[in-house]
Sequence to fold (444 residues):
Amino acid sequence: MPDTNPELAARLAELAGEVTGLRRLSGGASREIWAFDAGGRRLVLRRDPPAVEDPDAMAREAALLTAAAGAGVPVPRLVDHGPDLLGSAYLIMERLDGETIPRRLLRDARFADVRPRLARELGTILARLHTLSPDAVPGLPDDDPLTDLAARYEAFAEPRPAVEIALRWLDRHRPPSSGARRTVVHGDFRNGNLMIDPAGVRGVLDWELAHAGDPAEDLGWLCVKAWRFGSPQPAGGFGTREALLDGYAAAGGTPPTPEDLHWWEVYGTLRWTILCRHQAERHFDGSDPSIEYAVLGRKVCEQEHDLLLALGLTEPVTVADPLDDRGPGGPSAPHDRPGAAALIDAVGAFLNEAEQPDECLRFHARVAASALRIARRELLLGDAHWVAHRERLRALGCADDAELATGIRTGRFDARMDEVVGTVRASVVDKLTVANPRHLSLPA
Fold:
């Protein structure tokens, strides 16, 4: 495949030798990821977006890779890093063989033998990582996790009653031992950021969210429902929490109590809720327009549902996809056929079926097709959902979600929390019926 960015290829050649096969990879919602060959090596480039929030983050990630390797954590070998590659900080590492796509790891027959061992192996890897003191990597963020999360949420000025319920629960149920031990925390240790082959874990990737914190955070994050990708197994979709903690203990780690682990799972679910909204903001504010970021905005309700599940406030439910019963669409007069609905369906079918020249375009075509399905469902159900939501709010004496969210935070509805939860649950079901009805039926 020819180089897809000659200017980037020329600059990389100065750093690593003659470049061939340069191609951008899918994934990497916050950074560009490129694969290429140079000097007889198979390499990966990670590069910051144009409007990066933390210009020192890439240098910290390079230091983390070095420190983690020294602790026995499998990581790609660092080749080069620096502050300026065509205006962005960058990191070049060796490209590992293996698979990162969760659905392949959880379903393909070639991983059948290793899957039952992975939860324990991941516990072992985390125990090794958590031997690292925060002092091993100067400059790591070290904030109170819940305070930081609340501040990120409030920065959007977009009140969400489900988030308020979760924040209140987390504040009232903080683990007594929280903060007693501080280590390097990977911050994004989960299925999708692990390179795995049929023999086991080859590398832990994507260290950009690493920070100083409670080591139980990494364990809880791995068990968040989002990273199971439909599997009933809680530890990354691979195995049980018990297997994960057994591996952690056998390698010298001190496992959290079940109550503490549950707190961090709820925290992690809320964190992913807010991170999805944070990524979507890059599309909304025009700083980095992207179909991927736009659709992430409609993923927030998936995490709101998972929050209610984690808190025991809802259960899986089967809801029919309104697109399953769609007909050819109503009359288009005075316009010609096909009508708007049929045109949306035709474009979606084209995106799903057309051959795309590279992996990145294939990924974004699938995302775009998903966006069209969301738009189609909203056209079918949006008006009815708005009327129902307004009536639910009116029954609570609220004009809008902002008033309900404020009431939850201030305790105004403490005596009516069953009604509040019912309202929030119904709202989330409506949103998911449009965004992704299948998500409602997935097990907790």
Remarks:
- The chain has 15 helices and nine strands.
- The first strand starts at residue 19 and ends at 24.
- Strands lie at 19-24, 32-38, 41-47, 78-85, 88-94, 183-185, 194-197, 200-204, 211-213.
- The chain has a mean pLDDT of 92.
